[in-house]
Amino acid sequence: EVRWVAECASTNSALLDAPPADDGRVHVLVADRQSAGRGRRGRPWLSWDDASLTFSALWRFPPGTPQPAGLSLVAGLALARALERLGVPGVQLKWPNDVLVHGAKLAGILVELLPARGRALTAVIGIGINLRLPADIDLPAAIPVTALDRVLEQPPGHPLPTRSAVLAAVLGELHPLLDIFAAAGFPPLRSAWQQRNAFADLPVCIHGENDTLTGLCAGVDVDGALLLRTGHGVQRVLAGDVSLRPL
Ligand code: ATP
């Protein structure tokens, strides 16, 4: 069920605040414009009317679905596959929730959970994809920013895919991967994620609330936690309140 609105503060907040009835369908909310789009920890996610695609999908998982820790990574993998299918070469994933091309951020993901009712898990998966960037963009970002029109390989003069086409491509990849996740968790998807790991074997630092860890990025484990090879062995880092940055 796809609902497309002209404006909304945040598509994630709208679905979290007023979850649609449980009618067995996946509910998707798309907004032409978000006035208060969010990244992790309340950081802003910017979008530019028809130059961005911003939407959220509310997914009700069956009882018994594994811990949601790997869900951001699964959403990232689905987004990467959709972009590859649309013709974007070199799509990479930055743990835990960003999609990069040539080291610049093309899309971001924000997964939030509804308070559990019984054993069932309900997740809201928010996705923002830059289709074009305004000429005067001045984004105070830690990572450079890019957009689909800069990275898509297609014949000259060919129009960019429409927002509906990009949305359909993403939902088409998300659905089967979330079914796999519901049945078996992150392990069957781990190697596909690692193949696209932007920082595999590269030096990175992990900024936490109170400390910073540095080491080589050694991939992710079966729960989607980051593995960091440090002077004291391999440390496991949970997404929680930390950010990965290249060194
Ligand atoms: P982390 O590694 O912790 O996820 P992050 O900087 O990638 O850090 P997110 O919460 O994923 O943080 O995304 C929010 C950040 O993304 C903002 O602080 C801003 O720097 C950047 N940002 C905001 N809008 C866009 C956009 N349209 N395209 C790319 N980057 C953006």
Shape: globular
Number of helices: 5
CATH architecture of the largest domain: 2-Layer Sandwich
Strand order of the largest sheet: 1-2-3-7-6-5-4
CATH topology of the largest domain: BirA Bifunctional Protein, domain 2
* Structural classification: alpha+beta
State the end-to-end distance. 43 Å
What does this structure look like?
This protein has 247 residues and is of the alpha+beta class. It is built from 5 helices and 12 strands. The protein has helices at 11-17, 71-86, 148-151, 163-184, 190-195; strands spanning 2-8, 27-34, 52-61, 91-94, 98-101, 104-113, 121-130, 203-207, 212-220, 226-230, 233-237, 243-246. The longest helix is centred in the C-terminal third of the chain and has 22 residues, at 163-184. The radius of gyration is 18 Å and the shape is globular. The termini are far apart. The structure holds adenosine-5'-triphosphate. The site of adenosine-5'-triphosphate (ATP) has 19 residues, from β6, β7 and β12. Adenosine-5'-triphosphate (ATP) is lined by residues 39-40, 43-47, 97-98, 105, 108, 128, 130, 139, 141-142, 145, 243-244.
